[in-house]
Design a protein that fits this description.
It contains 2 helices and 8 strands. It is an alpha+beta fold and 133 residues long. The strands form 2 sheets. Strands 7-6-1-5-4-8 form a 6-stranded antiparallel sheet, covered by helices on one side. The two termini are 15 Å apart.
Length: 133
């Protein structure tokens, strides 16, 4: 299996999946919704395993495992674009967002970094991790 990190950075006007509180970072209702949507999207990809979901105040990170035989770059790009599109449409339908939900979609497969044609991103803090089986 080929391990790929997909990072979707939220647009500045988008809701935050985590907020910082006195006891650390707290998952927001939008964060719970986002995590559940990723879990339901994982079922639709027979050649891809969604291994881990990591939320930060400004991004969603998903570690996906691609089946051998799938071209790693093309397969990772397809998963990232489909996941971003699925979550964006669902957020608009349910009222979490009125505009574009994501400002950046970035992929890491092995040592090479690929980025979709959007604004640059930045990693912010640690968040909650969940495994999806």
């Amino acid at each position: 299996m080929i391990r790929t990190l997909v990072r979707l950075s939220l647009a500045p006007a988008g809701p935050s999946p985590l907020v910082r509180g006195f006891a650390g970072e707290i998952l927001t209702p939008f964060g719970r919704w986002l995590r559940e949507r990723v879990a339901s999207a994982a079922i639709d990809w027979p050649d891809v395993a969604f291994h881990r979901v990591h939320l930060t105040p400004t991004s969603l990170e998903v570690v996906v495992l691609l089946r051998p035989g799938i071209p790693p770059h093309r397969g990772a790009q397809e998963v990232a674009r489909a996941l971003a599109r699925e979550l964006d449409l669902a957020a608009r339908r349910t009222g979490w967002s009125r505009g574009m939900l994501w400002s950046d979609v970035a992929l890491w497969t092995g040592d090479e970094v690929m980025s979709a044609p959007r604004a640059s991103h930045q990693y912010h803090g640690q968040g909650e991790e969940d495994r999806i089986h």
